[in-house]
Amino acid sequence: MSKNTAVLVIMDGLRRDAVSPTRTPNLWALRQGGTWFARYRSMFPSATRVVSSSTATGCVPATHGLAGNSMALLDEEGRLHPHDAGAPDFLAARRAMHGRALDAPTLAERLSGHGGVVICSNVSPGAALAHDPNRAGHLFNRVVSHAPGQALEPLSDITLSIEGDRLITERFIAEMRSRRPALGVLWLGEPDATQHASTPGSDSCWEAIAAADERLGEVVAMVAEWRAAGEHVLLLAGSDHGHETVEGVIDVQAELEEAGLAPGAEHGLVTLSNGSSVMVHLAPGRDPAPVLEFFQAASWADEVLEGERLRRLGQRPGADGLLCIVAMRRRDAPNAHGLPGLVLVAKPATGKPDRLGCGQHGGLGASEQSAVMLANGPGFSAAECDIAASPIDLAPTIMDFLDLRAEGMDGRTLYRTEFPA
């Protein structure tokens, strides 16, 4: 049994202005007794697979190498290969091409000899595997599951739904009680799944938010038992990103074709929708100037992020041919239910529906970036702090709480830190 225990609960897609005493009573109660990070932000793109990797490694995408929910890989011959990073085989494909699944060690690897980890993730298999691509700990997902060094049967009876979250929370609590690892991570699929299919602020979305908060309450009860027995437990609870409402869908591929720019891997130009942002990859030898000019002139683009601006957002220009990321146009106007944030999105890949009127994320919009995070437990007083924080700070905080060194991370520890009010 570990000396200390850290528990992280993520309610995927919960935006900060949804937190209230009536909508999220368990999260609200934790907030009253812990440190609330009022300026906590998502990553860029504000997408689950990116945030999962950054949470697991304490690093920005430029360091860990998973740049987007969808991204391209560049092979040794200079050819681009588009990938959905949520697919169960994505990180294996990256390992085969680049030698490593991720370019930074995960918490699962760092803690393998120090109490281990239990990860229960009800999001995409690729996002789940980003926490532990090398099978260092115990990972449970509806598509992929493993124990240290070996595959396990996936939790195939679990769906991406409110009911699926209930079942995976049951499994998480059972695994935590039986294994007592140093770290437990519960990553719920709601309210993200419902918000992608409905308008944020609708009754179904509030129901999903309430259900996620109930799951948090079940974990809080487990933690309370352990604390009552004298154990030191740090509980981190929050979200990975928020949602805005889609008011238009742009077929970027079609517009590139109309402009005569020959998109496609066979032509060395790959554009991939990340919801409200677009990853643009260019193969060596192709002229970037007309591509950049096209995006800079597009009425649906808020900002074309390249070079130093892209580096400041944690990305690595040139890696796997990454030329730029386009943040789609958005505005603060309210949706049909009064929630601010309307955004344009890039048409998704074949086989995925256009989400007009539903929730989406991936860009730099205020509501997408307004993720939630609070810390409750030893080293964190009841306070609201105005320090800038993000998912890269979670891993060093957990390592510090567990009294372990956290070298090679881009984030900083929040444990036992004096925060400005």
Give an overview of the whole structure.
It is a single chain. This protein is an alpha/beta fold. It has 2 domains: 4-243 and 370-401, Alkaline Phosphatase, subunit A; 245-367, Gyrase A, domain 2 (2-Layer Sandwich). The chain is built from 14 helices and 20 strands. It has helices at 25-32, 48-57, 61-64, 90-98, 107-110, 125-129, 162-179, 192-197, 203-228, 252-258, 289-297, 307-312, 366-369, 394-401, and strands spanning 4-11, 35-40, 70-74, 80-84, 117-121, 138-140, 145-147, 150-152, 183-188, 232-238, 244-250, 269-273, 277-282, 301-305, 322-328, 330-334, 340-346, 359-360, 373-376, 383-389. The strands form 5 sheets. The chain has an 8-stranded mixed beta sheet with strand order 6-5-9-1-10-19-2-20, with helices on both faces. Strand 5, helix 6 and strand 6 form a beta-alpha-beta unit. The two termini are 36 Å apart. The model has no long low-confidence stretch (mean pLDDT 96).
Kindly list the characteristics that best describe this protein.
Alkaline Phosphatase, subunit A, 421 residues, 29% helix, eight-stranded mixed β-sheet, 2 domains, globular, alpha/beta
Assign the CATH topology of the largest domain.
Answer: Alkaline Phosphatase, subunit A
Task: State the secondary-structure class.
Answer: alpha/beta
Q: Can you count the helices?
A: 14
Overall radius of gyration: 20 Å
* Biggest sheet statistics: 8 strands, mixed
Question: What is the global morphology?
Answer: globular
Helix content: 25-40%
- Quaternary organisation of the protein chains: single chain
- The residue-averaged pLDDT reads 96
Strand content: 25-35%
Strand order of the largest sheet: 6-5-9-1-10-19-2-20
Q: CATH-wise, what's the superfamily of the largest domain?
A: Alkaline Phosphatase, subunit A
Question: How many strands in all?
Answer: 20
